[in-house]
Design goal:
With about 130 residues, this protein is mainly β. The chain has one domain (about 20-120): Immunoglobulin-like. The chain is about 0% helix and about 50% strand. The protein contains no helices and nine strands. Strands 3, 4, 6, 7 and 8 form a five-stranded antiparallel β-sheet that branches. The chain is globular.
C-alpha cells in the first residue's frame, strides 16, 4: 500500500485520495509515454504497455485497498474525437487495462496526442 504523505480533500470521506497521470501517445503500435517519469516520485503510472490497437496494460506505482471512483479520461490531441475507457482495474494489484477509441474504432494515440487520467482510491480498507 502507498505509505506517503497525502493531503485530505474537502469531502465527507476524508480517506479518499484523487490521483492523476499524464501520458503521451507513442504512435502506431507503441506504448504510451509517462509524461511524469522525470518528476519526483515518477508519477502515478509506471507504464502503459501497448497490447493491441488502442489497448494498453497499465501498471500503477502504488497499491490501494479499494477504488473510490473509476478513471476518467481527457485529451489534448490532434486526433479528433478521442475517448478512453477502462476495461479492467485492480488497485490492489496495481494494474488496469485501458482502451482508446475514435467513435467505436480502437485507435492508437499519436505522438502529438496527450491524455490525462483521473481516478480516486480509498486509503482505508472497505468497511473501516
Amino acid at each position: 500500500m502507498a505509505s506517503r504523505t497525502t493531503y485530505p480533500i474537502d469531502t465527507s470521506k476524508p480517506e479518499t485520495t484523487i490521483l492523476t497521470a499524464k501520458l503521451t501517445g507513442g504512435g502506431a503500435a507503441a506504448s504510451l509515454v509517462n509524461d511524469e517519469a522525470s518528476r519526483p516520485g515518477g508519477g502515478e503510472i509506471v507504464s502503459a504497455t501497448y497490447t493491441g490497437t488502442g489497448k494498453y496494460n497499465v501498471v500503477f506505482r502504488h497499491s490501494y485497498p479499494t477504488i473510490a471512483a473509476y478513471p476518467t479520461f481527457a485529451f489534448v490531441a490532434t486526433t479528433d474525437g478521442l475517448k478512453g475507457q477502462c476495461s479492467a482495474i485492480d488497485v490492489v494489484a496495481k494494474t488496469a487495462a485501458i482502451e482508446i477509441y475514435v467513435g467505436s474504432t480502437p485507435t492508437d494515440l499519436a505522438t502529438t496526442d496527450k491524455m490525462s487520467v483521473t481516478w480516486a482510491v480509498r486509503n482505508l480498507p472497505e468497511g473501516v
